[in-house]
Amino acid sequence: MTDVQAALGLFDREVKKLLENLPPCPPLADHGAVLAHNRKLCRLQQLIEYHVRKLPPYAFAPHLLAIGTELVHRTEYSTAETACYERLAQLNLPTVEHVNKLAELDKLALHCQALCGIQSCQGNKLLLQDPQITHTNTLKTLLEALAGLQAACMTVVQKQQLYWLVQNVTVHIYKLAEPLVTAGFYMEALPYLVFAAKAMEAHLQLSSTRFLAWRLHLYYTAAHCYCAGSKVASDSGSSNKDIGISMQQAHAFLDDGLAQLDSIVKAQALDPVPPPAAFAAALHAACSQLLLLKAMLEPLPGQPPSSAAAESMPHAGLLQTLLVVALDQELVP
Q1: Which residues, 6+ apart, have CB-to-CB distance to 230 below 8 Å?
Q2: Percentage helix, strand, coil for the chain under 3-state DSSP, each rounded to 5
Q3: What is the chain's mean pLDDT, rounded?
Q4: What global pTM score does this model have?
């Protein structure tokens, strides 16, 4: 066993022991318990910093991400952000040359995950305090976090080998955008949902049946935002021209999705080996789902363009049973 392996083993054991003895965050009214809890979190941060200084980046970076993920599951967002994600992001690994045992793609992936962790923690911290998004600062912070996630995704979206990371970032985006949709901030959430759907389209690996339902869920949520946002605009007296432009954008968005699915169908037709029947059926169901969404965007007589769709859009897709990527489970390379 090398010195690095021994030091890493000690790091893991000490962190595991501390986390096992870390109780859930107590109520704020229990000042004594809160103080004791914060002391343990402070001890964890000190422990992480001590070992990180003794270990090379290739050894501690994946462990910082794993610790951050565990803290996020415990809703310890502040500690995850500062002790893990910010500590890793500060290294700015993509700009560091000749990092031992880390390829350029590895450095980029680690840095992107750290940036995403920071943005997700910043958004989720405020959602814990203001889940209904009643304060303007919550809305501002969520939009800044979504913009940060989008920027992080842009650094890896063209790297086909990092398809798994692109998928994970779209989940982070959805988790922060969905509360905005629930609170009625449709048009604020819309650009980021559209971006997430387009990011999924950018990777051939993400066109498999495993991810079709997730892509459709993003299409649905974005289409719902178009519809509900247009309805709000209509109710507030916005011009029919502005509403019409919004609905045209919705149709164009779904047309792009259909074109992406059609390209998959054509590519399969050129393959001498026919695709599995389940794959062909899933593609057919996906196309049907998008066509259904398009049809529901059409207005009923005497109603504004978005009213019928906003009120009757089905939430559960035809491919719901294929949604195997859970929102609380990230992909790994």
Answers
A1: 243, 246, 247, 250, 304, 305, 306, 310
A2: 75, 0, 25
A3: 84
A4: 0.85
